[in-house]
Description:
The chain has three domains: about 1-140, no CATH class; about 145-240, SH3 type barrels (Roll); about 250-355, no CATH class. Helix 1 runs antiparallel to helix 3. The protein is of the alpha+beta class. The chain has helices at about 1-35, 35-45, 45-85, 85-95, 100-140, 235-240, 250-260, 265-295, 300-325, 335-355; strands at about 145-150, 155-165, 170-180, 185-195, 200-210, 215-230. The model has no long low-confidence stretch (mean pLDDT about 85).
Amino acid sequence: xxxxxxxxxxRAFIPTFxxxxxxxxxxxxVVDAIQKLDDFIEMGSKAFSLSAHYYALMVPVFxxxxxxxxxxxxxxxxLVRFAKNNExxxxxxxxxxxxxxxxxxxxxxxxxxFLAVTNxxxxxPRLAEGLVKVEQSTxxxxxxxxxxxxxxxxxxxxxVWTLNVIExxxxxxxxxxxxxxxxxxxxxxxxxxxxxDDNRWLLLNVVRHNYDDSGKWIAPAxxxxxxFLETTLTPEQLSKVDINSTLxxxxxxxxxxxxxxxxxxxxxxxxxxxxxxxxxxVLLFLGIPFVIGFERMxxxxxxxxxxxxxxxxxxxxxxxxxxxxxxxxxLHPLLAAWLPVVIFGCLGLxxxxxxxx
Length: 357
């Protein structure tokens, strides 16, 4: 009997997962295509073939980025269907507890996680070179966001939220300068900056904090209207920063860490890649209890699904914040990658253990 139930659950889950994968990736492609609509219009008659080639290369990348969300939504839809048809209740009446009902779903999730890792480590790196060429030849972006780059000659780490490549203008600039011993020497935060004719960056509305050789803050902070940043970095160099970790394999990320151990971004990328396979299970432990686990919650099952998705969004928000803090050197790379997994993983296990079985 249990074997038949397992087969029934598997037959319900796999088509739902495939449907969710195509639906979510389709929505992602539509949104991305709308953002690039001007570029497609400029291509004229070549727009369809070039866009088809580009998105064919991007599908594995989308799947890698969205895999945990796809799995959670697919599991939620299957469990909602079972709950509405009272099938879970019937299984429990037959003496099968809820954990046993969920067992085939978790086994399938493990197998699919292996496929996702294979996609990330083997397929995507092989497509990376072609994808980068298509992006560079087809979509020349005037504005680039979220840039982090190290100037080893001047021992500074430069973080730029927005770069206008054409005008040579920066917005939301953060700079960390270091002593020879690697300790923090100073930090600069500026609202904006611009590339001058004498090949220097002029930062405006700057707040500077200074630190001694041991990394301790020296009061007070300095308010500076105009500040010329000593760096060899040009707008062209900033625009060519390769920071897309999704296209790199685990081995490539490890080599980047060894090549530039002082650059926290590569360490954050590496540890995030190690932690990422667990994201799938963290989201399942968080989401499933809200879908079917608690009697006292609203009987509106779709409201439960919405709550589970909101909690999972909170997980991704915390991950984004921690990764950015890690990239700026404020948070240790290990903590930046693992803190969201540990916090929400513990919460998910607590909720999962408290389900009505």
